[in-house]
Amino acid sequence: MVQTGNVTEFIFLGLSHNLKIQRVCFILFLFLYASIVLGNSLIVLIVNFSKNLDSPMYFLLSHFSFVEICYSSTTSPKLIADLLAERKSISLEGCLTQVFFIHFFGGIEMFVLIIMAYDRYLAICKPLHYMSIMNRWICGLLVGTAWLGGFLHSTAQILLIFNLPFCDSNVIDHYFCDVLPLLELACTDTFFIGLRIVANGGSLTVVSFIILLSSYSVILFHLRGHSKEGRLKALSTCASHVTVVVLFFGPCVFIYLRPNTTCYMDKMVAIFYTVITPLLNPVIYSLRNAEVKNAMRKLWVRMVKQGET
């Protein structure tokens, strides 16, 4: 059982106390969340219904977009609802559930990004062996491993805070539950727990980031021997991947590789990786990828023709 002390729920301070700003934020974040769901769902739909996108790279992109929807959905609906609520509360069990799924889907995203980098490495550096290695069965196995990795990472984070006692204060200066704000509220010494959280979450972030940067560095080095047209096509694809990697890992490094303290900037950074990054991913992958744009165009034409008939 969770050692709650006197606390059975937490109160969020949210983004602002100003009612006018809250109403504006409600409209803004409702629009942004709807765009996240629609944009990433469109990527999933296009990949699954387009024969031209039947490749491991697009299978992984489709899965990544689905996880982005899940990841943003762990915080955005609650944020949007609280912007209209006078009392922004969440139960202790709901808070721990939110922490679990934030790190669960966040961990999955990290591992899927590594798999996507591995896929590009094989396609560019080992083209003759690519299809034999990255077949559908292997892709499914790698994605399943990503889900398992996310589950283990999230379970480790939850176990570290599960027995923390919360005695007096239950006010969280944030708009969702996370491990660092909860550590600040615990009425016990959390120094060593904080170190283990950094060792788990921080080291996973840094190691994953280093692996990704190393992978794309090897790819760029290998491209020297390709034709100009081949280099441009590969660089366009890799540039999209690297952009997403930087957008995702930059805020994570800022949040989870600092001392056990929170600050106002944490909210702004959290908005970036829970809302802005999932919003930009479909734009990045579609605008820089001719095959995705062509598939979108064909799907739109097909839908228009079906509507006319």
From TrEMBL:
InterPro entries: GPCR_Rhodpsn, GPCR_Rhodpsn_7TM, Olfact_rcpt, Olfactory_Receptors. Residues 39-285 form the G-protein coupled receptors family 1 profile domain. It is a multi-pass membrane protein. It is found in: Cell membrane. The chain crosses the membrane at residues 24-49, 99-118, 138-162, 204-223, 235-257, 269-287. Keywords: Cell membrane, G-protein coupled receptor, Membrane, Olfaction, Receptor, Sensory transduction, Transducer, Transmembrane, Transmembrane helix. GO terms for cellular component: plasma membrane. SUPFAM superfamilies: Family A G protein-coupled receptor-like (SSF81321). It comes from the Eukaryota. Its main location: membrane. One of its GO terms (molecular function) is olfactory receptor activity. Signal peptide: none annotated. CDD domains: 7tmA_OR4A-like. Pfam families: 7tm_4. Belongs to the G-protein coupled receptor 1 family. PANTHER family: OLFACTORY RECEPTOR. This is Olfactory receptor. It comes from Sarcophilus harrisii.
